[in-house]
Amino acid sequence: MRIPRSHPRYASLMQRERLVRAWKAGIVVPEGLIAHGRGEAWDYLMGEGTSAPALVAERAAAAYLLAAHRPVISVNGNVAALNGRDVVRLAKAIPARIEVNLFHRSKDRVRKIVHLLESAGAKSVLGLRPNARIPGLDSKRALANREGIFGADVVLVPLEDGDRAEALVRMKKTVISVDLNPLSRTSQRATIPIVDELTRALRNIEKFVIELKSDPAEAARVRRAYRKDGNLRAVYSFLEWRIDRLRRGAGVRPAPRRKATKAGR
After folding, report:
1. Mind listing the pLDDT tens digit for each residue in 74-108?
2. For the chain, domain boundaries
3. Which of 27, 138, 224, 241 stands 20 to 30 A from 117 (CA)?
4. Integer angstrom CA distances of residue 80 from 19, 27, 98, 195
C-alpha cells in the first residue's frame, strides 16, 4: 500500500505498515499489534510530542548508560520492526550489547530478529543461545545470556513486560524503560521510566549520549539530579494539562517538538 506523505497520519500509518509487514515475516506476533495500538492511544493523549519530563528522563538514561560497566539493550519483535536501525545506532554510540528477549519465543523468531538487527549493522547480537534464567519469572522472558541481560548492570528495556522489569530491578540492575503508559507496571517499577514514543526516545537518548560523552562532569550531575518520583509527577502534571486543554476545546494539535540537545539541563 502506498501512503502519501501529505497524509496527516503519515508517520503513524507507516509504523503500522512496518509492523504488519514484520508480522507477515514472522518477526512480530499479533499480540504485538494490539500493544502498539494501545501505545498510540497514549501518544494521542500526550500530544504526539516529547514532553519536558520525558526529555529529562531520556537525558538521565543516557548518563546512566554511559556510566555502566555492562550496558545492554533488550530487543523484542516490535522494537526490532519499528526501530532496529535506531537500536543499532544507540548501541554503537554507548557502546552496549544487544540481546533479543521475547515473551512469545521461538528459535525461528529469535533468529529472524537477530538477522534483522545484523542487517542494520549490529555485531554479535545475543539471544539465540541463552545460558541463564532471570529469577522469579516463569515465562520464556526469563531466558537470558550471562554476557548480556543477566550480567548487565544497566539495561534499556523498550516496550517491556512489567513482570520482567520488576525482576530485573530485584536483581539490583538499573532498568531504563520506554513506555507511553505512565500507569503501567513497567513505568512504575523501572529505575528510569521514559514516557515517550519509541522512535523519539531512542533518538533523543542517542543525542544525549553523544553530548554527555564529552562532558563526564555534566553526566555525573545529571545522574545525581534525576529523581524518578519527581519525574513521574511531572509526567502526570503534563498529562493533566493536556486533558484540560482538550476539555476546554483547545484542539488536538501535537505538542511542540523540543530540541533534545538543550532540554533537561
Report:
1. 999 999 999 999 999 999 999 999 999 999 899 99
2. 52-230
3. 138
4. 10, 8, 11, 19
